[in-house]
From TrEMBL:
Cross-referenced SMART domains: Iso_dh
Sequence ranges assigned to domain Isopropylmalate dehydrogenase-like in this UniProt record: 4-353
UniProt-annotated binding residues for NAD(+): 76-89, 282-294
E.C. numbers: 1.1.1.85
Residues at which substrate binds: R96, R106, R134, D224
Binding site for Mg(2+): D224, D248, D252
Cofactor: Mn(2+); Mg(2+)
Principal location class: cytoplasm
Protein's recorded name: 3-isopropylmalate dehydrogenase
Lineage: Bacteria, Pseudomonadati, Pseudomonadota, Gammaproteobacteria, Pseudomonadales
Catalytic activity: (2R,3S)-3-isopropylmalate + NAD(+) = 4-methyl-2-oxopentanoate + CO2 + NADH
Quaternary assembly: Homodimer.
The protein's annotated pathway: Amino-acid biosynthesis; L-leucine biosynthesis; L-leucine from 3-methyl-2-oxobutanoate: step 3/4
Key words, A-Z: Amino-acid biosynthesis, Branched-chain amino acid biosynthesis, Cytoplasm, Leucine biosynthesis, Magnesium, Manganese, Metal-binding, NAD, Oxidoreductase
């Protein structure tokens, strides 16, 4: 059966990096004899410009019908002044919640070839391989009520709500423990249980889930300490499970351990293993249109798609190996450039990965 993929290039560097990921996906499909059908649509600012909304109903329907979505990134200064309810990022939050993509997998893996690109000492990050499992459809980004109001004394006030239900915590914890079994069997659950009621429930439910995984070592850490430990001794972590906002922040932080956010892929999965795959970074308006963005995060996201939604581990491994070969060849986009390497454009990087893939 053919694999149906909805491609949403998005805004800023989105179309540039997506073009390269599609090239690589098609090359991998040819090599491994996979039937892949691509359909294109818009999300974010591009969708606002075309449909007047950052996520059109037809687009959402296409996404529901697809097995997987490949996304570039959304947002940019062009849409900063529009109605907040129609901002590009709203479209992204909506597609995540409508497809119930509750499990966000963000690997932070240091390619040995890039040890110099990290801002941390090589001995601190060498061999780094962390997987952050972030809850994506609950917590404070979606909690109601959220309101902005003017108090009787004339002062402006605004508040958000951080709710988590048992079932939401349980299902993300299960994903984390299952993935830990495929890795080094260590889970660190990150919360703020010394202060927040939602975190106290989080910890309780994670403990319950852990009973089904006696072979996996569980630890708990407060998020402020986790932020510190991630830069002090990041290699102590294997799988981190955490809530939506903590995961958002910690995964950006973890990305810098690996040298550049331009290297970090992500997968967002639902219970049916349908997934949306996108780089961890945003639309990088500061470098959009120049052909210099690093496409590797998006290419590696396509690899995650083959691995998690389509269970094509060989093809997924091949893309990762091809990326590694290209780094061995000394090819670098600007964000990971180092002395003695050759600077290449977005498209040259994509072409090099395709060539390496064919030669594996
Ligand atoms: P950003 O991730 O777009 O950029 C941060 C910095 O990293 C910039 O200097 C950028 O040039 C650089 N960078 C990012 N990706 C790169 C790549 N592939 N190659 C080389 N350099 C890269 O974050 P920023 O600037 O905070 O946000 C820009 C826009 O993106 C905003 O509208 C924001 O809301 C949106 N955004 C969208 C996300 C998404 O679609 N998932 C996630 C994060 C931000
Ligand atoms: Mg973020």
């Amino acid at each position: 059966m053919s694999k149906q993929i909805l491609v949403l290039p998005g805004d800023g560097i989105g179309p540039e990096i997506i073009a390269e990921a599609v090239k690589v996906l098609q090359a991998a499909s040819e090599k491994y004899d996979l039937k892949v059908e691509l359909e294109y649509d818009e999300l974010g600012g591009a969708a606002y410009d075309k449909y007047g909304t950052p996520l059109a109903d037809e687009t959402l329907e296409r996404a529901r019908r697809a097995d997987a979505v490949l996304l570039g990134a959304v947002g940019g200064p062009k849409w900063d002044t529009i109605d907040p309810a129609l901002r590009p990022e709203r479209g992204l939050l909506k597609i995540r919640s409508q497809l119930e993509l509750f499990a966000n997998l963000r690997p932070a893996l240091l390619y040995p070839q890039l040890a110099e690109a990290s801002t941390l000492k090589p001995e601190v990050v060498a061999g780094l391989d962390i997987l952050i499992v972030r809850e994506l459809t609950g917590g404070i980004y979606f909690g109601q009520p959220r309101e902005r109001r003017v108090l009787d004394n004339g002062e402006r006030q605004a508040y958000d709500t951080l709710p988590y239900s048992e079932s939401e915590i349980r299902r993300i914890a299960v994903v984390g423990f299952d993935l830990a079994r495929l890795r080094n069997r260590k889970v660190c659950s990150v919360d703020k249980a010394n202060v927040l009621a939602s975190s106290q429930l989080w910890r309780e439910v994670v403990e319950e889930v852990a009973k089904d995984y006696p072979d996996v070592e569980l630890s708990h850490m407060y998020v402020d300490n986790a932020a510190m430990q991630l830069v002090r001794a990041p290699k102590q972590f294997d799988v981190i499970i955490t809530d939506n906002m903590f995961g958002d922040i910690l995964s950006d932080q973890a990305s810098m351990l690996t040298g550049s956010i331009g290297m970090l892929p992500s997968a967002s999965l639902n219970q049916r293993n349908q997934g949306m795959y996108e780089p961890s970074h945003g639309s990088a308006p500061d470098i959009a249109g120049q052909g210099i963005a690093n496409p590797l995060a998006t290419i590696l996201s396509a690899s995650m798609m083959l691995r998690y939604t389509f269970s094509e581990a060989a093809a997924a491994d091949a893309i990762e190996q091809a990326v590694s070969r290209v780094l061995d060849q000394g090819l670098r986009t600007g964000d990971i450039m180092a002395a003695g390497c050759q600077k290449v454009s977005t498209a040259e990087m994509g072409d090099a990965v395709v060539a390496a893939l064919k030669n594996l």
